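Annex B, item 7. Sequence and structure tokens for protein A, then protein B.
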Amino acid sequence: MIRVHARLSSGRRLDKLQDDVLGAMDEALQTANPASIIRRHVRLDHDTLRVDKLSFPLKRDQRLFVFGAGKASGYMAEEIERILGERIDDGFVIIPDYLRPRPRGHRTCDW
């Protein structure tokens, strides 16, 4: 989650107006967060996948796949995976190269 925090160089807290502006920025960033958008619009109720007002009954033996492409799709797919968990069979998400995690001193990536 992105949070905006600021203090004056002297270490004093900002005044109320400045604090309110930073709070509004926090809210705007959270509203635009791809995972937050998925959390607000997608949920699993027992055996029914709900996307806003749409309902999709899920059978226990039904196979589910997740596909995505674009800058936000990785974050969205992670949230879908959190919601649907073991119900997902497979899938793939295509994100731009510059969004891939960089190795940090060893062969596996630090997330």
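Protein B:
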Amino acid sequence: DYSFLPETYVKSFIKNYAITLGLDGDELVDSYAQKQEEKKRHSLEYEEVKIETRVSSSKQKAIEWALGLGTVVLLISLILVYFQFKSQTNAPPAEPLQNFLKKENALAELGMQEVSFSTEWSWRTIS
């Protein structure tokens, strides 16, 4: 591992050491340079993967936030529907028929008559 030395010193050392051993120094320096290029290429690919991972993790966080918010909204909606339904089921019962007849008799005593027409809308005429 020569990463702590400048590349010029490393190449010079390899060349001189190869000559000392009786080997071709230029060939060993070229071999060293090729290995360094492969390492650089590999580290660049690693950096690209790392950047993609960061992007995907930010997308992942956005998805988690959206799901969390959706869950909260859904729970609140369900609670509101529950209380709305509960209040409708606890509504007072319809007016008994006896009270209706008493009202009709009261109108008759006053000389009035009630006429009702009901479809989707309701009209009442008291005369």
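Comment on protein B: The radius of gyration is 45 Å.
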